[in-house]
Amino acid sequence: MLIDHWPLLGLRVRTDRIELRLPADEELAELADLAARGVHEPGQRPFLMAWTDLPPAERARHVVQRHWRNLGAWTPQDWALGLAVFEDGRPVGVQAMWARDFAITREVTSASWLGLAHQGRGVGREMRAAMLYLAFAGLGAAHATSASFTHNAAPLAISRKLGYRPDGITRDVLHGQVMVSQRLRLTREDWERTERPAVTVSRLEACLPQFGLPTTG
Q: What CATH architecture is 2-211?
């Protein structure tokens, strides 16, 4: 079976409300349709990568290609995990994390997006909390980092609630303008003392070598 060659297909990260996992082909198509309908209000610029500026059909294609690219380029030393987020059995967004030389650095970086219709209901915080549990409790991470534009209040508020601390700024150019991002860092110690929803992870053991980690068995 395909899962024997790619154990990540069986990985499940769950809270009482949502489930994170790799999407099947038809679910990936639903995610693409979701992105085509919009992931932020017109005129906003929440992401440094300007994929949301694309026409709807190209935006949808970007979601599909990025998913395939991440899996196709995966190595234990350089990986990017984009998990679809399911609520009531339907995909509502993507929670991603990635790392290089994770077995040595024990550090991950994350980003995410939600369909516009699913924002403002606490799903964004819960899916990030689920990802952090996978990183810290499941994979033994020591640090998790993220970044958001300084004017992008919602993800910055989520980061504060989950225990991240400021970690400097970056200045980049988007559409000919300087965009300032707040870097954020969460240590294992801060994660352990921060309130978070209950999370369960299943079928992780078989996936550990794909993250560059030894199995415990």
A: 3-Layer(aba) Sandwich (3.40)
Which residue, 214, 194, 195, is CA-closest to 204?
Answer: 214
Q: Which helix (H) or strand (E) holds 100?
A: strand 90-100
Contact 159, 148 (CB under 8 A): yes
Residue type, 46: P
Digit-coded pLDDT (tens) for 55-69: 999 999 999 999 999
Q: What is the pLDDT of residues 25-44, one digit of tens each?
A: 999 999 999 999 988 777 67
Ranges of each domain in the chain: 2-211
| Pairwise CA distance, residues 56 & 53, whole Å | 9
Vertex 181: Cα angle to 125 and 18 (nearest 5)? 15
Point out which residues pair with 86 in neighbouring strands.
19, 91
Distance CA 117, CA 83 (A): 19
